[in-house]
Structure formats: structure tokens, C-alpha cells
Write a structure and sequence with these properties.
Order of helices and strands: EEEHEEHEHHEHEHEEEEEHEE
Number of domains: 2
Strand content: 25-35%
Helix content: 10-25%
Number of helices: 7
Number of strands: 15
Length: 272
């Protein structure tokens, strides 16, 4: 089940054909108003990942819009991004040869030629993708128009979002959360529901940081620390796993740097 938000009480049962956009290419999004964006309905919390992201970031007033539950057909064909390798394959197959980004890449290489030989970046890429870094463009765009000829849409899963939000050399940082971009109408049922108020009260884990010094910091949806879940990794791992199955951020605490998000938990081998 998918949740779509709109300004209209009636869901328009058609999708504007996808169009590439030069200005949005750097954010790996198509032209605004083309395609259809949804996020998976979560029955247990009566919302979606997009609703949660909007509320947490005070963005877009999701509670002031109309909520439409969409039931996809069983024969849909989605390109699924569940890990960084899926994203790399997408760029291998559907890279948009965009002149503006090509010029930015040339300027970047003239300014920072040593980045291609940076050993630290090579190690990060190897840990995320499993292969040696190749001579990839620093900035690249997805050819959504070409992709729409082969698929009904593209699905960034919750795990895929964690793996590609801060990944290198490609990322989907601007997608923000689990979501599907539909290229055509693929639904058999539509049901409009009232917005469900956010569940207040008990704090819940939304962000987990596992630092290089092996300490873990945990934050709730209100931005507050949760001391009962914080401490050395081996002491708090099981307690966190019991109530949280999302991504863990990995980084260097003294430097205040987060390298990337990854699946967890397991004892991490940090990159030095």
C-alpha cells in the first residue's frame, strides 16, 4: 500500500509523463510535476516514511494535505534500489549525458585532481560497493526518460536510502527517505483517508551514531539524547536492537564527521 499526498480531495488517476530537468539533474530528480511520488504506508504507525521525515523537519505541512492510499497492481515492474550497488548499476545503465554536469566535472577535476587518487575515498568506496573505485564522474544524473521506457517506477527502499544517502561516488541524498517515483498509473484502488495525527508521548529512537571510539549515541524524534541506550557498543547493542531496526550512522566523534550510514548491528571495522 502506498501513500500519496495532494492538495486535492480527488486523486487524479493519471501520471504526467516523466521529463528530465537540467536544473534538478544535480539532485537526481525529474522535472517537478512529472511522475508521481509515494511512500509506503505503515499500518503500525498510520503514516509513511515521508510523513515522518516531513514532520521531523517541519517541511511541507503533510497534515494539511489530502492523504490517498493507493493499491498497486500485482504486475508492476519497479527498479529497486536496496543497496549502493543497485544505484551504481542504475548509473551504469541510465546515465544522462548532461552538458552542465559534464562541465562541472571538468572544473572539479582541474581544481582537485588528487581526489581521484585519494586512498581514503578508495577505502570507503571499496567498503560500500565491494569493488575498486573507478574513474567515475563526481556529479552524474539519472536519465529518467530512458528509465521510464523499461520500468513503471523506481523504488528507493528504507535500506537503500540508508545505503545511498551519503554514499560515494553516487548518492540519492536529496530523496530524503523511502519512496517510489512512478512513471505511469499502476494502481487498482484509491482510498482517501483523513490525516492521522502524529503519535506524541513516548520518545522513540530515530538516530543512532556508532563512533570510531566504539561508543554509541542515540537520539529520539524530538532531538533529545536517550541515555538509557548509550554507551559502549557491546553493552547497548542488544538493547537498541530490541526496539530499533533502522540504519546506524558511522563516524569519527572527535572530528564530528559522519562517514556514511550502513546496516547494523555488527562489530564494525572502521576505516582509518
Amino acid at each position: 500500500m502506498q501513500l500519496s499526498l495532494s492538495e486535492s480531495p480527488q486523486m487524479r488517476e493519471e501520471v504526467t509523463p516523466i521529463v528530465n530537468d537540467e536544473e534538478l539533474a544535480i539532485r537526481n530528480k525529474p522535472k517537478q510535476g512529472t511522475g508521481l511520488w509515494t511512500s509506503t504506508w505503515r499500518q503500525e504507525t498510520q503514516d509513511s516514511d515521508w510523513i515522518e521525515w516531513c514532520r521531523d523537519n517541519n517541511f511541507g505541512n503533510p497534515d494539511g494535505k489530502y492523504w490517498h492510499l493507493l493499491t498497486p497492481r500485482s504486475d508492476i515492474n519497479l527498479y529497486v534500489i536496496d543497496c549502493h550497488s543497485d544505484l551504481k548499476r542504475l548509473f551504469d545503465l541510465y546515465l544522462w549525458d548532461q552538458p552542465y554536469l559534464a562541465e562541472l566535472n571538468r572544473q572539479f577535476e582541474r581544481m582537485f585532481p588528487e581526489q581521484k587518487e585519494n586512498e581514503r575515498l578508495k577505502k570507503i568506496f571499496l567498503s560500500q560497493v565491494g569493488t575498486e573505485i573507478e574513474r567515475e564522474p563526481f556529479m552524474a544524473a539519472i536519465d529518467f526518460e530512458k528509465l521510464s521506457q523499461a520500468y513503471d517506477g523506481i523504488w528507493l527502499t528504507e535500506q537503500g536510502n540508508a545505503a545511498t544517502r551519503l554514499s560515494f561516488p553516487y548518492n540519492l541524498y536529496s530523496w530524503d527517505c523511502e519512496s517510489i517515483l512512478w512513471f505511469r498509473w499502476c494502481f487498482e484502488r484509491v482510498k482517501t483517508i483523513q490525516p492521522v495525527p502524529a503519535l506524541e508521548g513516548q520518545p522513540k529512537i530515530t538516530h543512532v551514531y556508532h563512533w570510531q571510539n566504539d561508543l554509541v549515541m542515540v537520539f529520539d524524534q524530538f532531538g533529545g539524547q536517550m541515555p538509557e541506550y548509550q554507551g559502549p557498543f557491546e553493552e547497548v547493542e542488544a538493547k537498541i536492537k530490541a526496539v530499533y531496526d533502522g540504519p546506524w550512522m558511522q563516524g569519527d566523534y572527535p572530528a564530528g564527521k559522519v562517514w556514511h550510514k550502513g546496516e547494523q548491528p555488527s562489530k564494525m571495522s572502521f576505516i582509518s
